Amino acid sequence: MQMVTHHLNDDRQSGYFAIDCGYKICHWVWDAGTSTLRVRVGYAERPVELQHSDIDRLSEDQLLECLVELAKRTGEALGAKFGPKSPG
Questions:
Q1: Integer distance in angstroms from the first to the last C-alpha of the chain?
Q2: Burial of 56 by CB count in 10 Å (0-12 exposed, 13-18 middle, 19+ buried)?
Q3: Are 84 and 4 in contact (CB under 8 A)?
Q4: Are 79 and 40 in contact (CB under 8 A)?
Q5: Which helix (H) or strand (E) holds 19?
Q6: Residue ranges for the chain with pLDDT beneath 70
Q7: 65: nearest Cα among 28, 22, 26
Q8: What's the pLDDT tens digit per position in 39-53?
Q9: Residue 80's closest CA among 38, 42, 30?
Q10: Contacts for 69 with CB less than 8 Å, ≥ 6 apart
Q11: pLDDT value at position 4?
Q12: CA 48, CA 76: separation in Å to the nearest integer?
């Protein structure tokens, strides 16, 4: 089974999951202005709105960790296949 890795873009507001051959299987973008995480797998996209009360009590690193995990779960719901995750 191919390994899946997460890649964070330089803006720390978006990223993607890719299998080890480099094929991107799931993209995500965080819009802090609307508190919306947008997750895309192929042509399917799903917005996920977060509550300000939940976001406000998280540090920037905690929020980023939460967004990555939520993007992965949403990607799975949209049909992305995640195998074992490699470190990184």
A1: 18
A2: exposed
A3: yes
A4: no
A5: strand 14-19
A6: 1, 83-88
A7: 28
A8: 999 999 999 999 988
A9: 42
A10: none
A11: 87
A12: 14
Please state, in angstroms and rounded to a whole number, the distance separating the CA atoms of residues 58 and 18. 27
Residue pair 22/37 in contact (Cβ under 8 Å)? The answer is no
Q: What is the pLDDT of residue 87?
A: 47
DSSP 85: B
Predicted structure pTM score: 0.85
What's the pLDDT at 84?
Answer: 54
| pLDDT for res 83 | 66
Q: How many CA atoms lie within 13 A of 86 on its CB side?
A: 11
Structure tokens given for 9: 């873009």
Whole-angstrom distance, CA of residue 51 vs CA of residue 29: 17
How far is it, in rounded angstroms, from Cα 67 to Cα 65? 6
What was the pLDDT predicted at 1?
A: 61
